[in-house]
UniProtKB/TrEMBL annotation:
Pfam family, one: Resolvase
InterPro entries, sorted: Resolv_N, Resolvase-like_N_sf
Species, as recorded: Georgenia daeguensis
Resolvase/invertase-type recombinase catalytic domain span: 3-120
Name of the molecule in the record: Resolvase/invertase-type recombinase catalytic domain-containing protein
Length: 128
């Protein structure tokens, strides 16, 4: 069983060293980390490094990310990504969110709840 890392930065030249440091602290070697340059609204399935990572994953492996937002800014994309990994038998460890889906089966909903709780509420421009 492998622990593979995934890093996403929004723009070329963005500093990803903090994310790599977090993953290294979680036991992921740099050589086993896949990095994409893509905004959070780009679905994970459309990112080249993500697709390469998927090819390497096997049942029982773990994808390590700094937080769930690495998969996308949209809860729907995060849910689809988590669900696909769960279906493959791959767990997710989101270090900063404290989410480890290997701890119990079917944790996608709990992981999303964690992501929503960590996000500041969106402003409602129509509310007066």
């Amino acid at each position: 069983m492998k622990r593979l890392g995934y890093v996403r930065v929004d723009e070329m030249g963005d500093d990803d060293s903090d994310q790599h440091d977090v993953l290294r602290g979680a036991g992921v070697r740099r050589a086993e980390t896949f990095t994409d340059v893509a905004c959070g609204t780009t679905p994970a399935s459309s990112r080249p490094a993500w697709r390469l990572l998927l090819e390497q994953l096997r049942r029982g492996d773990t994808v390590v990310v700094t937080d769930l937002k690495t998969f996308g800014a949209d809860c729907t994309d995060v849910a689809l990504t988590l669900g696909a990994l769960e279906h493959m038998g791959v767990s997710v460890f989101a270090v900063r969110d404290g989410v480890d889906t290997s701890q119990r089966p079917g944790p996608t909903l709990e992981a999303l709840e964690s992501m929503l709780q960590a996000s500041p509420p969106a402003e409602n421009p129509t509310a007066a």
